[in-house]
Specification:
This is Phosphotransferase enzyme family protein. GO terms for molecular function: transferase activity. With 283 residues, the chain is an alpha+beta fold. Helices cover 34% and strands 19% of the residues. It has 2 domains: 7-134, Phosphorylase Kinase, domain 1 (2-Layer Sandwich), CATH 3.30.200; 147-282, Aminoglycoside phosphotransferase (APH), C-terminal lobe (Aminoglycoside 3'-phosphotransferase, Chain: A, domain 2, Alpha-Beta Complex), CATH 3.90.1200.
């Protein structure tokens, strides 16, 4: 349409209507309920994250409190489930699943995930559930707008540096997929509410339902519908019979990685939601 901006004119997408000016007081009061008595926490909000992710809010803050008579200062990341009025990406948003996936991956693997601290699952504090995890210093290839559009640090990096990130990402992907006994360890991610005799079939039906959820707002995609039909007609029965594994559903760099001290590191502040989105699948 003539009144729609060209891609080149878009430099920021609005994802949340939250008034962050109220957060320091609200979060300080809430932290006092999860920290030891006498902690007297004080919170300051540093920023939100606008260059990556669309499915939820990410807010960076600094918290100070007293612990065993010593002052503690900790930079934290708050992941906040989206409000229904902010155009949610998914029909439901299980932030508790994200929290638990990060925690278990950190316990079971050497994937350098951040430490998850606390979760508020009720939505009574900020209006929707949220959790806090440690901040990991570094940089992430943007996806709003995507790094492939150019004019960002990754697009301008040398080929060797880009390859380093690629190889590190594949290694993390393989580690996640090779966690043993995933069906039991991550069984809470299984799409049991959807029909199907295997994890892959239930997952497929979930993806199709997700597409149907989006159609009223964004319209139909003939390409996706042909893809669904082709997969249904060419179902991989042998693969579907294999042991389920933990699936990182969208292993894009903007949802996965940060660089700390010149080394590529994976962080789950972003990719965790895609583990949630795509949950259990066949290997």
């Amino acid at each position: 349409m003539a009144n729609e901006p060209a891609i080149g004119d878009i430099d920021r997408l609005q994802r949340s209507s939250r008034d962050v000016t109220t957060l320091p007081e609200v979060m300080s009061r809430w932290l006092a309920t999860v920290l030891p008595g006498g902690a007297a926490p004080e919170v300051s909000v540093e920023s939100g994250v606008d260059s990556t992710g669309m499915s939820s809010e990410t807010i960076i803050l600094t918290a100070c409190w007293q612990q065993d008579g010593q002052p503690i200062e900790q930079k934290l990341v708050v992941r906040v489930a989206p409000a229904a009025t902010d155009v949610p990406v998914f029909p439901t948003y299980r932030l508790d699943h994200q929290f638990e996936v990060i925690r278990r991956v950190g316990e079971l693997t050497d994937v350098p995930v951040p430490k998850v601290r606390w979760i508020e699952p009720t939505g009574n504090v900020l209006g929707t559930p949220f959790f806090l995890m440690d901040y990991v210093d570094g940089v992430v290839p943007p996806d709003v707008m995507p790094y492939t559009f150019g004019n960002n640090w990754f697009a301008d990096a040398a080929a060797e540096r880009q390859r380093e990130l690629q190889d590190a990402t594949v290694a993390v992907l393989a580690t996640l997929h090779s966690i043993p006994d995933a069906e039991n360890i991550f069984g809470f991610l299984a799409k049991e509410d959807f029909p199907g005799d295997t994890a892959l079939r239930r997952h497929f039906n979930w993806v199709r339902a997700w597409y149907d959820f989006a159609v009223p707002d964004i319209g139909r995609s003939p390409l996706l519908e042909r893809t669904f039909d082709w997969l249904d007609a060419n179902w991989p029965h042998e693969a579907a019979a294999r042991q389920p594994v933990l699936l990182w559903g969208t292993p894009g760099w903007a949802t996965s990685c940060t660089a700390t001290s010149g080394r590529w590191r994976c962080w789950t502040g972003k990719w965790s939601r895609w583990v949630l989105a795509n949950s259990m699948s066949r290997g």
